[in-house]
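Why do we bother with holo predictions? Because pocket geometry can differ from the apo form. Keep that in mind while you read this record for fructose -6-phosphate.
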Amino acid sequence: MCGIVGYIGKQKASPILLEGLKRLEYRGYDSAGMAIADGENNFLVKAVGRVANLENKIGEKKILGTVGIAHTRWATHGKPSDQNSHPHQDCTGKISLVHNGIIENYRELKKELQAKGHKFKSETDSEVAAHLIEEFNKKMNFETAVLETLKKIKGTYGLAIINREEPDKIIVARNGSPLVIGVGAGEYVIASDVSAIIRHTPQVIYLDDGEVAVIKKDGHQIKTINNEAKNKKITKLDWDLERAEKQGYPHFMLKEIFDQPASVEDAIRGRMLLAEGLAKLGGLQTVSEKLRKIEKIIIVSCGTSYHAGLVGEYMIEEYAGIPVEVEYASEFRYRKPIINSRTAVIAISQSGETADTLAAIREAKEKGALTLGIVNVVGSTIARETDAGVYNHAGPEIGVASTKAFTSQLSILVLLTLTLGRQRDMSLVTGQRIIKELRRIPKLIQSILDEKDQIKKIAKKYHGYEDFLYLGRKYNFPIAFEGALKIKEISYVHAEGYATGEMKHGPIALIDKNFPSVFLAPKDSVYEKTISGMQEIKARGGKIIAIATKGDKEIAKIADDVIYIPKTLEMLTPLLAVVPLQLLAYYVGTAKGFDVDKPRNLAKSVTVE
Ligand code: F6R
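The structure, written out:
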C-alpha cells in the first residue's frame, strides 16, 4: 500500500525512479510524484492517477540530479489530488519526503506546528513529518532532526527523506511499513519492496521496525531512532526479473493465472518423499518436535489468503485430526483467542506485509503460541517475524487480484497436512496417495487453462449481469468465496459466496432470471446434495454455471453452462476448481473494459490496519 522508491548514486535518478514506480504501482495508483535534490537542479513533480501521467508530465524535461525519492499513492488521508500527492515538503521546500503508513497523531502535531507558523499545503498525515523535521532542524543538524521527528510520530511509516542542502544523502526509516535497501556498486536503490530493486542489484538489507539508515552513494549507516549503531547483514535475492515481466500477456493477472502449472510445481518441488509418504518442509525442521505436540491450530489471514486458510481447515481436520480455527486477521486481536504453548498460529500472506496479519501474529507470539508463516515474498516482515515457515516460491505476483499465490498456498497447505498427518494417524498409503495426486496437479491445471476459449465465451455471455451467487460445499465452500471475491474486485459486479446448504436459508430469495449462480459441483462426497441445491435454483428460474468433473453428463441437463475440471482427490479439487473462476472473473472484467491489473480503490499489499 503506497510504493516508495529512492535512488542515490552516479546515474540520473529520474529514469530509475520512474521505472521503480512502475514496478511498485500495484501498491497504489491514486497519484504519483517525485523529488530530486542535487543542490542546483531541485525538482518536484506530482500527477494524479497512474505513473504514466507522472511520466507524461515529466516529458522531455532535463532532470540531472542523481539523488531522489518517488512515491505512488493509495489514498488514506485526503483525496487523490496534486496537493495530497507525495513527496511532501516543509515550508521552505528544502526537505522532501515520501511516506507509506499512517501517522496517527498527525492532528495534534499539525496544530502545534501551525501555531508555530508552519503552512500546510495538503490534507495528508504525512506532511507533518516534513514540517517537524524543519522545526527540529532549526536547532540541530538534519540527521538528528529526523531522529527527533521519528520519536514524536505515533503510527506506522516507511519514510525516505532528502534535503536540498545536503544532497549527498537519503535518510530512510521504518516502523510497520516495509523498507528495503538495495546495495549496488557506488549506488543504492531503496524501495518498499524488492521488485523495484532487483533490476539494479540482488544485494539487499531489510530494515526492521525502529531502524533508520543514512545512505550516501558510497556507504550506509544503520542505527536505531535512539542513535545506537546497528550492524545488519546483506541478503542476496534469488528473484528472477523475467518472472516479474508480463512476457507477452496483455495483463499480469492473465500471465499469473497461466503461471499456475509452474508455480504449483515450484511450491511442491523437492518437498515430498514418496517412499515414506512424507512432506519435507525445510523451513519447519527447527519446530518439527513442537509440531508433533500441537493440539490446536489458528490460521490468520485476509482476503484470498483467508480463503486458502479455510480450505486448509478442511484438509488438516480431516487428515491430521487437529482442530483448526480460521480467523480474519483483522478480527483476531479483538477477540480473546484461547492460546497456549500447544497452539500453532499460522499466518498466510502472499506479500508477508499485510498489517492486520502481522499484528495478529505479534499478538499470538505475545500469548505464547508457536507462530508459522506461509508467505510468498522472501524476507518480508511476516516471514522474518514468525518462528518458522514455508515459502510459496510462486515468484512475484503483480496483478492486484491474487491468483497464483492462492494455488501455491493451497499446495503448501496440502504439504503441511501431510507433515502433521504423518506425525499422527495418517497411514503411509494415504500419504503416498496424496503425494501422487498432488504431483499431477500442475498438469491438470494446464488442461483447464487449455480450455480458456470456452470460459471466455461463457464470460461474454454473462458479462452484462450485475449480480452473481457463488455456491460450494465442503472443500469447495471457500472456493465459492474466492470466486465471488475475484469477480467483484476486477469486474465491479455484486457477487456473493455462500455455502450451498445455506442458500435456502435466505439468499435464494434473490434468485430470478437476472441473478445467475455459479455452482462448484465436482463429483465428490457431497455431489448429490450439491445437485439438489442446483435443482432448487433451477426451479426458481435462476441461470446456472456449473464447475463439474469431466465426464459428468447429467449435470449438463440441469446447468445452463458447464465448465469441466479433471477428476482428482476430493481434498485437491479446490486447486482445480478455482482456476476457471479466476479466468471467468478475468474475462468478465476485460469484456467490461476494466484494467484488471489495477482495480479501482484497491492496492496489492495492505500495509495499513
Ligand atoms: C484478493 C487479494 C487480497 C489479498 C489480501 C491479503 O485478490 O489479493 O484479498 O489476498 O489483501 O494479502 P496477503 O496475502 O498479501 O496478506
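The chain has 19 helices and 27 strands.
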